[in-house]
Amino acid sequence: MSHQQTAAILEAVPDFLTEEIDAGPPQDDHPMALLLEEFDDSYVNQPQQGDIRHGVVVDKRAGELLIDIGYKSEGIVTGREVDRLEGDFKEMTIGDEVPVYVMREDRDGNLLLSISRARAESDWKHAEELLESQDMFTGSVSGFNRGGVIVKIGQVRGFVPASQLSSESQSRQLTEGEPDNRWMKLMDAELRMKVIDLDRRRNRLILSERVAIREWRREQKERLLESLEESTVCDGVVSSLADFGAFVNLGGADGLIHLSELSWGRISHPKEVVSIGEKIQVMVLNVDRERKRIGLSLRRLLPEPWETVPDRYEVGQIVRGVVTKLVHFGAFARLEGDTIEGLIHISELTERRITHPSEVVTEDQGLELRIIRIDTDKRRMGLSLKQVSPEEESVEFDWEPVPLEENEANADNSAADNSAAENSAAENSVEAAAEDQAEADSEQAGPAEAPEAARVVA
């Protein structure tokens, strides 16, 4: 049939038939349109490898889970993926919602899923957020090697190099034994950390405790400086020692106990009173918010020894002491079992004439001494070595101060200088030192009464 014949036949079709043909069924209800819509939805919702979906457990079998993720068929979690779940697999029940990672389809067309991979992807994303925000977090040490420790963020293993551990953590390392076990004491320890490096392709996640602790302490110090008030009592831990004092951690911020505020007695190093790691109570002396410094005291929470001296000692009493220092005008001795020090004037060391105390006593030497003077107001005690065992029993002693000649002024000046040197770091001692010096100068210049033999600085 030619084209002309075909055209003639079409023209012969009645108009009412062509209108019906043109109208046809509604477009939305056309079977082909419905099939196309179903195809489009199926294609759009089709899971792709690497997708993370949320599914529901619909069946649980031995070593296998069926997960509904809204696809035409359920996905399967099986084999090694189940083994990686360990205890979580036993706790899962039908109806539980779980995130899953789409892996691939097997030969039978089953969609293989992984719950552990989905969790790891979520953990990596969380680690990336921590790196971007630089927020601190707390994690537990799950492993170690000679180079550092391992801390997990979820299921992602992060590494904390030894150089990124805090000084407190580093102090806990083992110095003996195998090098691989040097961080054994940190196992299961809770550490505060920050993410400092992340490379997903290389499966690299580097953490730092040192950076986190430094920032945390700075924040804590700001809070403490705002909240601390003078004369308040705080609990702390001795964090480090120096020649000039001890540093105490008050909960993230360190304060300093100066050497002069550690003890009422004279000490040469803080280790004589405290040790690193020791828990103590301290009093806040001052807070310098501009320089961000906190001054502390330990001795002010202890009884002041001179307040109880009249109850414990009396003139004429025999005591035992240890020589602590030799000066040209005499020797200082600390009473045994006490922080009180007294002065043995050079004239009270022996009956014979000497030019220096070293001719009779030495430092650290233990002696039997007699108390010949107590002045609690000026914190002074006079001691005598020669009056402990007088050579002539018939001689009576009233244990009163013995007059001196030219040595009295030098003794007062030297004693005042020693007192000022010992207490220069303590704020409450400046006026006392100045008063002693003024008194010594006035006694040296004026005629007054007979000078006293035993002027001492406790």
Automatic annotation (TrEMBL):
One of its GO terms (cellular component) is cytoplasm. InterPro entries: NA-bd_OB-fold (IPR012340), Ribos_protein_bS1-like (IPR050437), Ribosomal_protein_S1-like (IPR035104), S1_domain (IPR003029). SUPFAM superfamilies: Nucleic acid-binding proteins (SSF50249). Residues 390-409, 433-442 have a biased composition (Acidic residues). Residues 50-116, 134-210, 231-299, 316-386 form the S1 motif domain. One of its GO terms (molecular function) is structural constituent of ribosome. Residues 410-432, 443-458 have a biased composition (Low complexity). Keywords: Ribonucleoprotein, Ribosomal protein. GO terms for biological process: translation. It comes from the Bacteria. Residues 386-458 are annotated as: Disordered. PANTHER family: 30S RIBOSOMAL PROTEIN S1, SMALL RIBOSOMAL SUBUNIT PROTEIN BS1C. Belongs to the bacterial ribosomal protein bS1 family. This is S1 RNA-binding domain-containing protein. It comes from Caldilineaceae bacterium SB0664_bin_27. The lineage of its organism: Bacteria, Bacillati, Chloroflexota, Caldilineae, Caldilineales.
